[in-house]
Design brief:
By secondary structure, this protein is α+β, with helices and mostly antiparallel strands. 43% of the residues lie in helices and 33% in strands. Strand 3 and strand 4 form a beta hairpin.
Length: 140
């Protein structure tokens, strides 16, 4: 075998290995937008089914709100969850604007309604220890 053929054979082998490696699919973790929307979907579904424990698991221990502290927020979520079940509640997060900036995200306006009317709210999330959690809830 000539030097050229040996070189050509090694080159083809190298190309075959690189092609095989290049075709391997790397599973990528969901990006921040997808992670935030997954939290918001879980929040929505938990409220609509009145699963207050699951709703509160999505809130940071350091949550702030114009309505009050975490205890007050839990009371509000308990009442809201019950109203969602009793009054054919609906929550529209699909048409809200989602803005992610670093480790913070905002989702607004979120329309929360029942047969008796609707309100719009803003939810702010932050990434804490690699997990997106709700850190602010308000009218803004």
């Amino acid at each position: 075998m000539t030097h050229f053929h040996s070189f050509a054979r090694r080159s083809l082998l190298l190309l075959a290995v690189l092609a095989a490696v290049g075709c391997a699919t790397v599973v990528k973790a969901p990006d921040d937008r997808a992670q935030v929307m997954a939290v918001m979907q879980q929040w929505k579904q938990s409220l609509l089914t009145n699963d207050v424990a699951q709703v509160m698991a999505l809130f940071s221990e350091n949550v702030t709100s114009e309505f009050g502290d975490r205890t007050v927020i839990q009371e509000i979520m308990t009442e809201l969850g019950q109203r969602m079940v009793d009054e054919d509640g609906r929550i529209d997060i699909e048409n809200a604007d989602l803005v992610v900036a670093g480790d913070r995200a905002s989702v607004k306006p979120i329309s929360i309604g029942t047969r008796k009317g609707a309100v719009c709210r803003t939810v702010v999330l932050a990434k804490e220890n690699g997990r997106w959690l709700i850190v602010e809830l308000g009218r803004k």
